[in-house]
Amino acid sequence: MRALVAIIGLLALGGCAADVPIEQPSMYLNMAEAGARLDPQAAATMISLYRQNNGLGAVVVDPQLMKVAEMQSQAMASRNKLDHDVKAPLPKRLQAAGYPATLAVENVSAGYHTLAEAFSGWRDSPPHRANMLQNGVTKLGIAASYAPNTKYKVFWTLILASTEPRDQLGVRIPSAALAD
Q: Is residue 31 very low, low, confident or very high in pLDDT (cuts 50, 70, 90)?
């Protein structure tokens, strides 16, 4: 009798669980749909974990870098062209935005429909992987722009940067040393 009650209880709980919608992780959301919204915090978490697994520090979402990345992705989408310099080279774009980068790298790509796909593509490409594993970056801006009438449909931009002062060799200067 106890077994029968336990089975009925489990079936009842199973029926309740079926009514609860299972939310899809944001890294798998399809960006090739009108109104799709990229989750920059999910990107920062994914990239930070990858960096930490490779002995590097985490990155945080930077609102200013988000705007620069968005402008780049939109420019590529509007021109249907995958190109770092579609508007201007990264240093000029950062300078125009008033962003005080002392170190910055950029990955652009197109055709990936999810953050997970874009991340995997970057991870599997030696130059893109090197950018994600750039020592000294602490901030991130990322964007995906949907352009339905283009070859690739989704255009991605990832900018990783630091605003920490550096010497001519690229070595970070400790804040205490700047106080003198």
A: confident
